[in-house]
Amino acid sequence: MTGRGVVGANIVDPKMGPCDSCYDKGETWKLSRTSSRAGKKRGKSKSSMAMEKVSARAGICDGLVLEEACHNKVEDGRHKLKEIDSSKLSSPQQHRSSLKADLEPTKCEIEILPIESNQVVSPSKETEQVDGLQLARAEMGEVREENERLKMLLERIMTDYKTLQMQFLHMVKQDHQKQQPAAAANSPAIAATSAQGPEESSLVSLSLGLDSGSSSSGKYEKEKENHLPAPRNEDYPHERLALSLDCKFDAANMSGISGVSNLPSSTSPELSSENHKGEESGEIWPPSKAHKTSRSGDDQVSQRNPPKKTRVCVRARCDAPTMNDGCQWRKYGQKTAKGNPCPRAYYRCTVAASCPVRKQIQRCADDMSILLTTYEGTHNHPLPVSATAMASTTSAAASMLLSGSSTSGSGHHPPEVASTANLQGLNFYHPDPSRSKQFYQLPYSLPVMSSPSNPTITLDLTSGAPVMSSTSSYAHNQLSSGANYYNSMARYNNSSTPSLNFTSSETIASQPTAWGNGLPSFTAAHHELFNKSNPQESQLLHHQLSHSQKTNFSNTNNPQESSIAAATKAITTDPNFQSALVAALKSIINGGGGGGGSGTVLTLGNYLVGGAGAGGDALEQKLRWNEGLTTSTGFLFGQKMAPQVNACGSSYLNKSSTPNSTSSHHQPASLMLLQSSNPIPLPISFHKQNGANAATSPVDNGDRNS
DNA sequence: CGATTTTGACCTGCGC
DNA sequence: GCGCAGGTCAAAATCG
């Protein structure tokens, strides 16, 4: 659910496909004319491997159209491998011909064959060829693994697609049912025994005014992914509600209902807000902007950029003027907002000229060390790797916002009940009750939504701040004020924690309307992490945790403790899990760090591991597991840290300061992997240490803009 | 010199 | 209708 846009950006990169493809093709043809046979074969196998990858990716990008082709490739490769193995390859010539048949595209084969037929094989060359064969085999193995991974990805996408399809069909069915009001309204028994089956019927009857199909399907999807047994019917009320995570679907449903568009489901805040806004779908941006853009053509804009209303506010401790989220931003305005001495800066994304994403940055009035970054919109371009974490996070948060609004349906919960949640280990809440108008308020039924102009959801990333997502916390915080806000959060954290992280099984008891039993919640959380790593590692992690949770969950009276114990056990005792997690972390660091050169420190709770200059290997070496570590969920985000404690020393806070003066103090990045446990959160965070080249790292160079 | 930031003016929505 | 506040624009200033 999270980071759909991000994933899409990575996979459906319009630049990547063609470029790679062309390059690979060129390499293939060039290598086909070289004299070194082994090299030729290696080159060819690589190029063909790359071509296969490209074609497989293209299959994904085309929305599974080429799924069958990918399957065929995989099967074909397997078949050929078997042939190679079974033939025993009596001679080098046979080796070559077999490999050629396996590895080379037919085009290249035509060129090579004449050369081969005229060649006399010497003993030295023979060994060379054997080496080449071994290399080729290894490469084939890589190709096969890659194909397997792609296959898995395709399967997952197919699952999503099927789920979507089911939901769509269900919606259509519901529409039909609505058109027969007499039968539907007067005979609930009929509905309960409809062809949808007992599960879905129960879902319908238990619905809080929402389309049930989407959630149920989404639930099953999650169940599938978790390899969990199908839940019992009596669990469905919880699970039904827990499905608020599947906001994409709800959003899609809503869009269908409102007739806004036929766009596929998306987690994009714009789309969601569009759905919320209904007939206001033509509006893109705050009024003034919308008016101006409408002058240049409403239709164009509305098609290209859905309206942006949903906001995601990231609240993080950051002494630097801005939080590095990986994107490039250009400041276009600054305003002193009422009630906050610190001015608010307005940025727009400059990665793409037409990108509608904007953000606002402002210091928290109560705590100058806290930076409030409000994102609005979704990037319409491929994102830098370093930007995907934050993008996916905000997207997920926006999704949660929307899902909350959709699942609340005809809900009767007080606003504070719905206004706090925890997504992927993040804390969502209204940071300032006095300004609640601006912040996330769940509309209680779709048709009569009292949607604020800019519904905002806040992610509390203030490291060290307690997890606060409970109703009581918020209620209390509404009574609290100012600097005591977080203290009150800490105090009330223990009472009930309907958070989404997998430690919060207590949710069931304390707030059944929140997030269900925690297992799927944890899945949603750690998927974020897993998806950034090797899928196999992801699966391993996934399996380990799921299994541990399943095992311990039933044996403990306190589900929360059991979850914690399960995770702890999985983390601390299982070397596979550790290695997988290390690999995942390495993947994140290498792929998403974005800031070159500086060291990486892994923190588990208060436990520092790694050090300056620590790369992946160093991380792996130094990774140790803190006994106090109770959970590990998978949220990632980029954050800028600065050693200099100068809360308001940013250029936009102090005119006298210059970008140089601020950027030179930046630390390249901080990756926060969190999450926390109850009662005391133990964030797992990566801190890019202030290396000598920090100031010249790519991240730092971009900081000036962000 | 181009890109970016600053900053005052302007526009719009909303509450009274 | 008026004033306020949020948001944006665009010319000037600044930076690399």
UniProtKB/TrEMBL annotation:
Its main location: nucleus. Residues 318-384 form the WRKY domain. One of its GO terms (molecular function) is sequence-specific DNA binding. SMART domains: WRKY (SM00774). Residues 181-218, 261-272, 538-549 have a biased composition (Low complexity). The keyword Protein transport does not apply. GO terms for cellular component: nucleus. SUPFAM superfamilies: WRKY DNA-binding domain (SSF118290). Residues 82-101, 179-237, 259-311, 537-560, 684-706 are annotated as: Disordered. Keywords: Coiled coil, DNA-binding, Nucleus, Transcription, Transcription regulation. InterPro entries: WRKY_dom (IPR003657), WRKY_dom_sf (IPR036576), WRKY_plant (IPR044810). This is WRKY domain-containing protein. The lineage of its organism: Eukaryota, Viridiplantae, Streptophyta, Embryophyta, Tracheophyta.
